[in-house]
Amino acid sequence: MNEYAQLLHKLSRVRSVDAEEVADAAARLRRDKGKVNALRTALETEADDLAEATSLLSAPVLDLRAPVDPLAGPADLDTELRAGHAALGTAQSARKAAVQAGRLPSLMPKTHHLLRNGVVYGGILAGVFLLQVVVSLSLDAGELSMWLAFLPPVAGVLAGYITIGAVARPRVPTVDKHGKVIEFRVYKSPRLGVALAVVDIVAFILLTLRT
């Protein structure tokens, strides 16, 4: 009778231990499932943010799916979670950097606006000056008129003004905490363009007078 009671006691202890192990395993499974779901939600949110950023930047949408090695064995869950969080952090950093860069002017984004505008006006007026010279060489001296000296540089200043409005405006608008777009001020420096146009006009007149 005592042996029977001892056997029953041992059996109850085994059942108790098994129940505790099952409960621990179920708790671990719930924790792991929660971690996986949290990472999945974060990845889906980041994928939506990336899609929105790429649409603003006119860039292709990135594929966030990790490459699968058919020869690789089953990976540990903690290792996969660490790799997932690392990939998520990399994607977030890259997206923030791209959006921040998109909020700068598309041409020479980190330079002063006067330097950028000087490059635009100067490049266009240099082309205008070459055009003036080519046209003047094809005309006789008596056919040269003042329109060739003045009208092309004026058109060049206007073209530069329009060009600066396009290349100095960021592709991604800046918004405040309420989501309202903050207007970006574009400095077009028309006086700089006029000054360079005057230089063009004077240089062309002096060149034609010498010839």
Tell me what you see in this structure.
- By secondary structure, this protein is mainly α.
- It folds into 2 domains: 2-102, no CATH class; 113-210, no CATH class.
- 71% of the residues lie in helices and 2% in strands.
- The protein has helices at residues 2-57, 77-102, 113-137, 146-167, 190-210; strands spanning 174-175, 181-182.
Could you outline the blueprint of secondary structure elements for this entry?
Layout: H1 2-57, H2 77-102, H3 113-137, H4 146-167, E1 174-175, E2 181-182, H5 190-210
Antiparallel strand pairs: 1-2
Helix pairs in contact: 1-2, 3-4, 3-5, 4-5
Please summarize what this structure is.
With 211 residues, the chain is mostly helical. Helices cover 71% and strands 2% of the residues. Helix 3 (113-137) packs antiparallel against helix 4 (146-167), helix 3 packs parallel to helix 5 (190-210) and helix 4 packs antiparallel against helix 5.
Secondary structure tally, helices: 5
Q: Overall mean pLDDT score?
A: 76
What percent of residues adopt helix (DSSP H or I)?
over 70%
* Number of DSSP-assigned strands: 2
Largest sheet: 2 strands, antiparallel
- N-to-C order of helices and strands: HHHHEEH
Query: How big a fraction of the residues is strand?
Result: under 5%
How big is the Rg? 35 Å
What is the approximate shape?
rod-shaped
